[in-house]
Structures are given as structure tokens and as C-alpha cells.
Amino acid sequence: MKFTDTQLRYLRTQPLGRLATLAPDGGLQNNPVGFNIDDEHRILIGGYEMGRSRKFKNAQKHDQVAFVVDDLKSTNPWQPRMVEIRGTAEALTDIDPPMEGLSREILRITPARVIEYGLDA
Question: Where in the numbering of this chain does the Pyridoxamine 5'-phosphate oxidase N-terminal domain appear (predicted)?
Fold first, then answer.
């Protein structure tokens, strides 16, 4: 699934998103993360010790994830904007990181469904 031009423009202006993963015990974890978008419109999430993180280990066991990027364009009038990406995550190792200084593990999210709100307002 590809992002629309509007979704891409918005996502590329945002520094953080929130990644929700499912732990092996059935508990949910939701973390703020930095991200990049690759040429195939997949979300790339790296970290300084990504391979040791709970989110990485969760994705190794259960690949279904949700990723949300949101902000407020204005508070008066109230204008929230967001993109929610539901899809599958691959926990990859020995990969060139998306940013210098990050570890060689990344999460790569392939969107299956994209929901947006307020981007055209």
C-alpha cells in the first residue's frame, strides 16, 4: 500500500510517532519513536539499542502493529491532524540504520491500512 502525496507530505514534517506492539503475554506497549519512510512507503524505526528493546522483541513474536503520527495544526480553532498506519512489522538485524549512530536493528512496517484525519483542513 502506498501513501497519498498528502499523507507523505504530512508524515515527512513530523519527527515522532507512536508505535503500538503486542507483547507475548498479551499486554500492549505504546512508545514514542522517531521514524523514516523508505522508497517503498514503509516506515523504518531504528534506535540506539533497538535489538534489546521490548518493541523489537514484541515485533519478533507478533508482527501486527499500529503506528500513529499526530499533531495539532491549531488550537483555536481546534484542528487535530493524524495518520494511523496498521500493518505488519519486520524485526530486521544487520541492516544499515536509517540514521547515523543507531544500532543495526530496525523495525520495518509495511502498511495494510492507512487512516487519516484533518490533513486537508
Answer: 5-95
The cell numbers describing 66, all together, are: 499500529
Measured distance CA(104)–CA(71) in Å, rounded = 30
Range of the domain at 93: 5-117
**pLDDT tens sequence across 25-75:** 999 999 999 999 999 999 999 999 999 999 999 999 999 999 999 999 999
The count of structural domains within the chain is: 1
Residues making up the chain, counted from first to last: 121
Tell me, rounded to whole angstroms, the distance of Cα 67 from its chain centroid: 4
How open is the CA angle 89-90-92, to the nearest 5 degrees? Answer: 145
Nine-digit cell at 39?
522508497
* CATH code of 22's domain: 2.30.110.10
Q: Distance between CA atoms of 121 and 118, rounded to whole angstroms?
A: 5
